[in-house]
Each structure stands twice: as structure tokens, then as C-alpha cells.
Recover the amino acids of this structure.
């Protein structure tokens, strides 16, 4: 396996282009992490109301009771605008512009949490499987860990080089709105990417990825910010695609029966 972790002097755009993902060490300080955890937990408890922006991405799996299998909250920065004045949005935007170009802007953000012992995997997929076709496919999703993300609590896995291949046929993974495609941990190039709190990993729209369910007694909280060229976001909005900002609807651009 190749090493896609950023070190001093690394060219993150070169690593991103080579492997389809790149690890970003120390994006947030320990103090930053505590601040984001506090806001995140206020979303999870319902103190910050999310309405129809909150769903169980793993609703098609066996429920663990009252706990959501995979909590997803879309557009947290709309629901709690103070988030945009904190460090992450500006830092992530600067990285996205290094990775995909100076015309990158925020397309959407979301929270995805796996509570202890929920044991529900996020299926293998490519983000582009959710999206409408656009003439410029440049995109970067920056997945920020607010906990120790481990193999057993749901760290990300990527298939190195898969961003250079096609968008595979995707299908619904169940009632929660997740999609899936044919892939496994045995796929050549499949690599787990554990992260400490405050570190992140950026991946492209065609990069195959997944995470195991959380079988541990610890939280796995992630904040994800997605970026693409401003002109393509305008085109998305013209086509009615706003990632649940105005309505909680998912699309599968490459759907197949099953």
C-alpha cells in the first residue's frame, strides 16, 4: 500500500491525484476538537434541533433500540450558523482549493455519527453515485474525525486509485437512504485509514470508500465538508440538487434494480 499521509513538505494535491484520497494530520487543535464536540453533542441530544435534516442513514439495518444506527445531520452550518465562524470551514476551504482549484467553494456539510455498539457499516460506495452528472466532476470531501477513529469503531476505508475508474452501478442499501455498490475489503488497494481526533482525510467523488460499524464502547463522530467548483454548484442548484437543504431527498444517479 502507498502512504497517503501528509508530512512536512508534502504536496497534498499530488497525493490526492495519485491515490484518490489524502490524510491531513492535525487539522484541528485539541481545544478546537473540544469545542466542536460540544456543539456536535448538542445536535445529537436534540438541544440544537435538526428537524428533517436529521435521519438514520442505517435505518435499513437491524435497529439497536432507540439509538440511531448511523446518525446523519445535513447542513449543520445552516442549523447553527456560528459553525462558519469557527476554524474548520476556512481551513477546509483552503485545503479544497489546493486539491481541486481556486474556484472551489462549499457545496454542503454534514455530521455522521456512529454511537457505541451500533455495529452498522456504511456500505461501499462512491459519492458520485449520489450526485447528478456535471461537466466538471472535480470535488473534495473532507472527513474530519472528532474521536479516535479506529477500524473497529468505523474509520474510513478507501480503494487506492479507484477515482480513476468509472462510477460503478449503485443501488439502495435500505430505508435510510444509503446507497451501495459491489466492493469489499478484499478489493485490491482497499486500505483502512485510522485517525486521531482533529485529523482528517480528503477524498474525491469517484473514490470508493466505506466504514465498518461501531462495535466498541466509544463514540465515532465525524464532520464532513464537501467542496466543488462554484459554477458546478450553481448548475446543481439549477437542476434542483441541494443535498437536502430545502427537502430531505436523496438521488442515485446510477441506479440499478435491486
Amino acid at each position: 500500500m502507498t502512504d497517503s499521509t501528509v508530512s512536512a513538505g508534502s504536496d497534498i494535491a499530488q497525493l490526492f491525484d495519485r491515490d484518490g484520497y489524502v490524510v491531513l494530520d492535525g487539522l484541528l487543535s485539541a481545544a478546537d476538537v473540544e469545542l466542536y464536540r460540544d456543539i456536535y453533542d448538542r445536535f445529537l441530544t436534540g438541544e440544537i434541533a435538526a428537524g428533517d435534516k436529521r435521519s438514520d442513514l442505517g435505518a435499513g439495518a437491524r435497529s439497536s433500540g432507540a439509538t440511531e444506527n448511523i446518525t446523519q445531520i445535513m447542513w449543520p452550518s445552516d442549523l447553527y450558523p456560528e459553525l462558519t465562524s469557527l476554524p474548520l470551514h476556512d481551513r477546509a476551504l483552503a485545503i479544497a482549493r489546493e486539491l481541486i482549484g481556486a474556484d472551489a467553494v462549499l457545496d454542503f456539510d454534514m455530521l455522521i455519527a456512529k454511537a457505541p455498539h451500533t455495529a452498522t457499516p456504511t456500505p461501499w460506495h462512491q459519492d458520485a453515485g449520489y450526485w447528478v452528472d456535471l461537466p466538471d466532476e472535480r470535488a473534495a470531501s473532507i472527513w474530519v474525525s472528532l474521536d479516535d477513529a479506529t477500524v473497529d469503531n468505523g474509520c474510513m476505508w478507501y480503494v487506492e486509485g479507484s477515482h480513476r475508474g468509472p462510477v460503478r452501478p449503485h443501488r439502495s442499501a435500505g430505508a435510510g437512504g444509503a446507497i451501495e455498490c459491489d466492493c469489499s475489503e478484499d478489493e485490491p488497494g482497499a486500505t483502512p485509514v485510522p485517525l486521531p481526533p482533529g485529523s482528517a482525510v480528503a477524498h474525491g467523488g469517484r473514490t470508493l470508500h466505506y466504514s465498518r460499524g461501531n462495535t466498541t464502547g466509544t463514540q465515532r463522530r465525524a464532520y464532513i465538508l464537501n467542496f466543488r467548483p462554484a459554477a458546478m454548484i450553481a448548475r446543481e442548484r439549477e437542476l434542483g440538487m441541494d443535498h437536502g437543504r430545502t427537502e430531505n431527498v436523496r438521488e442515485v444517479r446510477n441506479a440499478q434494480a435491486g
